[in-house]
Amino acid sequence: xxxxxxxxxxxxxxxxxxxxxxxxxxxxxxxxxxxxxxxxxxxxxxxxxxxxxxxxxxxxxxxxxxxxxxxxxxxxxxxxxxxxxxxxxxxxxxxxxxxxxxxxxxxxxxxxxxxxxxxxxxxxxxxxxxxxxxxxxxxxxxxxxxxxxxxxxxxxxxxxxxxxxxxxxxxxxxxxxxxxxxxxxxxxxxxxxxxxxxxxxxxxxxxxxxxxxxxxxxxxxxxxxxxxxxxxxxxxxxxxxxxxxxxxxxxxxxxxxxxxxxxxxxxxxxxxxxxxxxxxxxxxxxxxxxxxxxxxxxxxxxxxxxxxxxxxxxxxxxxxxxxxxxxxxxxxxxxxxxxxxxxxxxxxxxxxxxxxxxxxxxxxxxxxxxxxxxxxxxxxxxxxxxxxxxxxxxxxxxxxxxxxxxxxxxxxxxxxxxxxxxxxxxxxxxxxxxxxxxxxxxxxxxxxxxxxxxxxxxxxxxxxxxxxxxxxxxxxxxxxxxxxxxxxxxxxxxxxxxxxxxxxxxxxxxxxxxxxxxxxxxxxxxxxxx
Length: 530
Description:
There is one protein chain. The chain has 530 residues and is α/β, with parallel strands linked by helices. 46% of the residues lie in helices and 11% in strands. The chain has helices spanning 3-16, 25-53, 62-71, 75-85, 95-103, 109-122, 144-158, 170-186, 197-208, 228-231, 233-236, 252-264, 330-339, 354-357, 360-371, 427-439, 452-457, 479-505, 512-529, and strands spanning 217-221, 243-249, 272-276, 292-297, 341-352, 375-380, 393-399, 407-411, 447-450. A nine-stranded mixed β-sheet has the order 3-2-1-4-5-7-6-8-9, sandwiched between helices. Helix 13 (330-339) links the parallel strand 4 and strand 5. Helix 8 packs antiparallel against helix 12 (252-264) and helix 18 (479-505) packs antiparallel against helix 19. The chain is extended and about 110 Å long. It starts with a helix and ends with a helix.
């Protein structure tokens, strides 16, 4: 990781020390990531002021920029800032000003609360952004002063960081790295907001195989978490500034994290369409407006959902004749995403292996997808890749414009780097999967291109071992060598017994019973040695 990222992570984890004893990582990440986002917004605005009416950001410190702002906080300047950033922060509410209060010990929680409230009120894009940063929580301290002391420690820890002058997406990548670290500390709760980076990379790149998108593209994640999966398209699509992002997330705190993540990765606000809502309960976005070049998803596995009869009339599910069972929404997520895929697009979704072979309603949905030629590939992943579960998972790749109904099966379950807590895909593992997917050919003990008839003969069961034989026969046993080794072992045993008898004969004792016992042992050994 770059040095700037290391500095950022070190500072944030220093801030975390003020919170670790008070709450778990899944909670204190909201405070830390929210406050650093606030500092970024404040610093960006102050540096812009120096560019507009001062000596420029390269020649000016943040403290100097603060004084310049306080002396020139007229309506015209505020209007220019609003046009540039879609937000404006009052001079009394900047991070730099609040640090003055921290340093002279006059800081109160209300100072920061007012700053958050002002940012949220300037534009609907920022509405509710800091809702999950509960500055008045008694977990921060038993009274107002102790709460202020805790937050002061966090502010001080990150106050010296340079967040704006970092090149490209350095800050965004550092932020993403920190999200991954908090995911590691959060354990199973991390499944709510984070997909491991290599899995995200693989899903993203699978949707780009054989595609051009020179004029830009639209991407959609209906269970976006912190947005890390969507943001991978900035790294791998040709026109990263021409990507339109759509994402939906049911957890409000995680949704806010995704909004911050987008902004810190310099995604234009006009290019991001994020929604806090239940993906399955009500369809979004309206299909008449948007179908997507790429759909990527790592939804919660085997989630319960209503499966209400009315959903049979929902165009997302109606053509399949049945609904995903109430106890397992896996196919509901899959069909939602597939419904929103363009005829020329590609979808990649991570699901538990049960979707490949479970029968009843899921079997009917799977058969319809196969008969339509919608399933393009099934890729088995290693176990224990995710923070939220240790089970092995599978990636299902879907298309609407396939020329035939064949399915490529890849068993990548045995190729990974074993970690202390989680296993990890390596870059060479990702590249091998992508190469195999692109070439679409059989690879011994790794991949098989199955025809529709072959799948039909298997009763539309997609369990990977039915198609990819990874059995490794036991090596042949050389019986002559085994016999020779047994003879050598027996000879060694005899030698050891002779040596032991010699040692026993040297033993003496005044106790007749002891000597009688020793002699019996010697006699037994000598009989065996005859």
